[in-house]
Amino acid sequence: xxxxxxxxxxxxxxxxxxxxxxxxxxxxxxxxxxxxxxxxxxxxxxxxxxxxxxxxxxxxxxxxxxxxxxxxxxxxxxxxxxxxxxxxxxxxxxxxxxxxxxxxxxxxxxxxxxxxxxxxxxxxxxxxxxxxxxxxxxxxxxxxxxxxxxxxxxxxxxxxxxxxxxxxxxxxxxxxxxxxxxxxxxxxxxxxxxxxxxxxxxxxxxxxxxxxxxxxxxx
Length: 219
Prior knowledge:
Elements: E1 10-12, E2 24-27, E3 34-37, H1 47-61, H2 65-74, E4 79-85, E5 88-92, E6 95-103, E7 114-128, E8 138-145, E9 151-160, E10 167-173, H3 176-179, E11 187-194, E12 200-215
Parallel strand pairs: 2-10
Antiparallel strand pairs: 1-5, 2-3, 4-12, 5-12, 6-11, 7-10, 7-12, 8-9, 8-11
Helix pairs in contact: 1-2
C-alpha cells in the first residue's frame, strides 16, 4: 500500500531531539508557510476544572452565559483527546509512510456544560537532510476514513519539510467541512511523503489531537 525503501527507513533512538521543548511554528492553512509563535498557554484542562471555573464565574459575577463563555475562551481553557508517537524514522524517495493513526473516541459529556467549538490540532517534528537544495520535496499529509475504512476526507498536505534542522510545526484544522467527518469511530491518519531521492526525510514526533472548548448553555 505504501511504497518506500525498507533499507533506508529505519527506527532510531530519540536522543538529541526533545520535541516538546522545541518552539512551535504554526502553519498557514492556505500557503503552508510556518510562522514561529509564542503560545502562552498550551495545556489541556480537565472537564471538571472547566466546569468549576465556569460555575465560580457565574456565581460571583452574575454575568450572562455568553460573557462567562467569553471569559473562558480568553483563558484558553479546553479539553483534549490525542494520540502521539515518538518514533524516529528516516527515508529517501520514493517515500510514503503511514506515521500515526488516531481513532476518534467517544465525546466527553457534562451536565452543566456544552461544547462550543472544536478544532483538530496536528503537531509534527520533521526535517530533511541535504535541504540546501532548492525547492520542496517533502510533505506531511493527513486524511480521514470512516468506520468502514472508506475515505471521507482525501489526503491533503498540512506542512512542507524544507528545513534541514528539526522543526516542530503545527497545523490547526478548523474547517467545518473537515470537522464534520471527525466523528466517533472515524480514523485520522498522518503520512510522511517524500519525492526527491537526494534528500532524506526525517521525523521524530507527531501528535493528532482534538480540542474542545466548553461553556455554559446559552439557550
